[in-house]
């Protein structure tokens, strides 16, 4: 079979394979293209050898569905039935629309007339009064119905009797497969018993649960083979305002590679106290069948309920499992280090964010800015401003870079909006205020200084988000950052002079002269009065912000878990230069003595380990993960175990955050009432896409778990 090509929608739906290599089925697929082009929420997978790939399916999102054969769809909604400004007609064309077309669509909102008959669902229908009450609300006749990621109005057996044209995406996908040549499936739907069609929403949930169980079982077996593991956890609100906690396990697999896998989303409706959350984490691990005695680390953010010394999750778990030290997420610590505590810096960041939102939240203003960028910044790699996110620091740094590069175009666009009377009053007023702020020399010099200093933190911010990042490498990267900033601090006059010249050059583009706030006749709050403008900003901005970062780095990245940190001298590149490395490793081994397979022979292994790497110093690894991969477990069983435990020690909780982002893709506003079991099932299948699922196991478990289907047979296997 050739490579599979996927036609994916912009939201999560289960993928269904329609694989047809027989010539008679290709013609059916080609004839079906016309129906596909008027349908939505269909995900089709075909073989790369199929001629069908020469035909494009151009409408993958929501709307009318493909009916079953010989079904009269009298109520089907087509483009001809809708107003030309129906928003549903443009959902799958947004990327192809110009800013002017988007503006026309937004300004010409179609509102159903007073005599319009809204369709009912279970006795409920749209209330026309909502359109007057909520100016942001609009209605789409074209989209009325099939706008849920998996289900339509009818996803149960009623659609079979009523021949409903909006039977739900899953039902229509099954109908499409039967229509496109799957004779076994077609025969099953026509001649099979009505109480064993296996297509109801109940069976969907049962199959999702079984598939997720298979994935979870495979992950659990991997963790059990690894033996030692750490837990990462972080909570956030989903679209239904329910607190969900992502629980992730970190371990070392059979190939000596560090893995971090989501095992469950835990609903936290009962509360967010340290006691409740720690109990939920323990129960989640216990349900997987993992031994808590092999719990070797825990990592959370710095919230009080997680990191509190008395009643935090970390403290409560540490009482029961003293070998599981708490590590504050390094990414969170770094973000706290560069948080804007200096008033001038904080104000500048807020102004950049507000101006960026001013353009990005309006197609008309963004179009005007784009025109100015083409005229004034033709070589720029940015085509619009980047939203300066409050939590994603890489985007914040990149947002400052984009703002500086597009600065002439931004000022020109704001000036144009301010002076053009065709713009509305609010836009002109806001633009006038923003021009005044952005043209001030204080704003410009602060923007340059902050961008330069934050640029040094970007590599570390990016590196800490890697799954295979180990603790020793993270500590080394932090030390490199600290030493670099200390070097800049020693020669701050030179660095500041260069940044000041750059600020003067940028200010000259809009005829802004270097200036500083006026000085009153008698100062009572400042002892270090300066008259030179460059010196003033060096004293009031550059040095305070740099000192703030250095102070926070020393404070937040202090030597916690000293015994754990000292044990990293076992890394070959470290032991060569540290004469006391044996003592430090033995202290660690004493704490974890029960974990070592042959603790009485550790002294011999340490001598052999030192001799070997002194003779091979040119290839000595510099990280824990590399050391583990180059360690022979048969020759050095105790050292291999120590390295495995150290690899299990986590660095960041970025995997939890990535899982929570996946949660947003799965639990949308249209599916905000999804049950926890279904949510966890779909999440496991979506996040662990690399895990292969044996369908035979799924079918066997389904038949065993639900024996009431007396005439059960494997309809997925064409050989039966």
Main sheet, how many strands, which sense, barrel? 5 strands, mixed
What's the shape? flat
Radius of gyration, whole Å: 31 Å
Which stretches are poorly predicted, pLDDT < 50 over at least 5 residues?
Answer: 1-76, 145-150
Give the termini distance in whole angstroms.
21 Å
Query: Could you tell me the strand content as a percent range?
Result: 5-15%
Percent helix range: 40-55%
Keywords:
720 residues; alpha/beta; five-stranded mixed β-sheet
Task: Describe it.
The strands form 2 sheets. A 5-stranded mixed β-sheet has the order 6-5-4-7-8, sandwiched between helices. Strands 1-3-2 form a 3-stranded mixed β-sheet, with no helix packed on it. Residues 1-76 and 145-150 have low confidence and may be disordered. Helix 15 runs antiparallel to helix 16. The protein is flat and about 85 Å long. The protein contains 30 helices and 8 strands. The chain has helices at residues 23-37, 99-107, 129-133, 158-162, 169-179, 183-191, 201-226, 274-287, 304-307, 313-320, 330-337, 343-360, 363-376, 393-405, 407-419, 425-438, 441-455, 458-463, 471-490, 492-508, 533-556, 562-566, 572-575, 581-591, 602-615, 624-629, 637-648, 654-666, 676-687, 695-705, and strands at residues 4-6, 16-17, 44-47, 229-237, 243-252, 258-267, 295-300, 326-328. By secondary structure, it is of the alpha/beta class. Strand 2 (16-17), helix 1 (23-37) and strand 3 (44-47) form a beta-alpha-beta unit.
């Amino acid at each position: 079979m050739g490579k599979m090509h996927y036609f994916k929608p912009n939201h999560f739906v289960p993928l269904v394979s329609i694989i047809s290599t027989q010539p008679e089925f290709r013609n059916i697929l080609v004839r079906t293209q016309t129906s596909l082009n008027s349908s939505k929420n269909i995900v089709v997978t075909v073989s790369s050898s199929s001629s069908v790939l020469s035909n494009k399916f151009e409408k993958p999102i929501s709307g009318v569905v493909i009916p079953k054969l010989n079904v009269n769809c009298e109520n089907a909604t087509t483009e001809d039935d809708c107003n030309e400004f129906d928003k549903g007609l443009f959902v799958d064309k947004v990327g192809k629309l110009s800013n002017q077309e988007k503006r026309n669509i937004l300004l010409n909102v179609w509102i159903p007339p007073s005599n319009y008959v809204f369709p009912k669902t279970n006795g409920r229908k749209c209330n026309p009064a909502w359109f007057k009450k909520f100016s942001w609300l609009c209605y789409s006749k074209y989209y009325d119905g099939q706008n849920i990621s998996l289900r339509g109005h009818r996803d149960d057996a009623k659609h079979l009797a009523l021949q409903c044209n909006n039977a739900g995406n899953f039902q229509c996908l099954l109908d499409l497969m039967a229509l496109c040549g799957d004779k076994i499936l077609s025969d099953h739907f026509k001649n099979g018993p009505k109480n064993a069609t296996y297509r109801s929403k109940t069976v969907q949930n049962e199959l999702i649960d079984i598939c997720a169980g298979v994935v979870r079982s495979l992950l659990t077996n991997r963790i059990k083979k690894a033996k030692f593991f750490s837990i990462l956890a972080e909570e956030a609100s989903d679209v239904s305002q329910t607190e969900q906690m992502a629980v992730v396990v970190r371990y070392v697999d059979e190939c000596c590679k560090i893995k971090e896998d989501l095992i469950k989303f835990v609903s936290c409706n009962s509360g967010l106290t340290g006691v409740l959350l720690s109990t939920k984490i323990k129960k989640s691990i216990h349900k997987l069948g993992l031994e808590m005695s092999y719990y070797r680390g825990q990592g959370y953010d710095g919230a009080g309920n997680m990191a509190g010394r008395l009643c935090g999750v970390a403290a409560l778990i540490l009482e029961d499992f003293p070998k599981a030290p708490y590590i504050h997420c390094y990414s969170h610590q770094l973000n706290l280090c560069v948080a804007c505590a200096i008033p001038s810096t904080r104000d500048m960041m807020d102004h950049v964010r507000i101006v960026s939102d001013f353009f990005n939240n309006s197609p008309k203003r963004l179009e005007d800015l784009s025109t100015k960028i083409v005229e004034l910044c033709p070589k720029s790699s940015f085509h619009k401003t980047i939203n300066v996110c409050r939590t994603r620091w890489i985007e914040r740094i990149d947002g400052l870079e984009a703002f500086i590069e597009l600065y002439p175009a931004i000022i020109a666009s704001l000036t144009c909006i301010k002076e053009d009377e065709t713009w509305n009053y609010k836009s002109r007023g806001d633009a006038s205020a923003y021009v005044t702020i952005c043209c001030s020399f204080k704003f410009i010099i602060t923007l340059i200084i902050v961008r330069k200093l934050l640029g040094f933190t970007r590599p570390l911010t990016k590196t800490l988000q890697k799954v295979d990042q180990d603790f020793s490498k993270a500590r080394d990267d932090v030390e490199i950052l600290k030493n670099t900033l200390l070097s800049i601090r020693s020669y701050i006059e030179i660095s500041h002079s260069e940044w000041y010249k750059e600020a003067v050059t940028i200010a000259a583009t809009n005829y802004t002269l270097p200036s500083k706030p006026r000085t009153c006749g008698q100062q009572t709050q400042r002892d270090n009065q300066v008259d030179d403008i460059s010196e003033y900003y060096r004293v009031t901005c550059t040095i305070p912000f740099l000192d703030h970062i250095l102070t926070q780095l020393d404070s937040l990245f202090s030597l916690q878990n000293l015994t754990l940190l000292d044990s990293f001298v076992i890394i070959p590149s470290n032991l060569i230069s540290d004469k006391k490395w044996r003592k430090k490793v033995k202290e660690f081994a004493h704490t974890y003595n029960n974990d070592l397979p042959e603790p009485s022979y550790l002294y011999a292994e340490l001598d052999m380990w030192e001799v070997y790497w002194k003779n091979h110093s040119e290839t000595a690894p510099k990280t824990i993960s590399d050391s583990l991969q180059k360690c022979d477990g048969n020759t050095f069983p105790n050292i291999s175990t120590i390295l495995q435990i150290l690899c299990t020690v986590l660095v960041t909780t970025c995997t939890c955050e990535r899982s929570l982002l996946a949660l947003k893709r799965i639990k949308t506003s249209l599916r905000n009432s999804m049950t926890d079991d279904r949510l966890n099932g779909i999440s496991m299948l979506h996040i662990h896409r690399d895990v292969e699922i044996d369908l035979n196991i799924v079918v066997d478990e389904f038949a065993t778990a639900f024996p009431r289907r007396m005439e059960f047979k494997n309809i997925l296997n064409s050989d039966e």
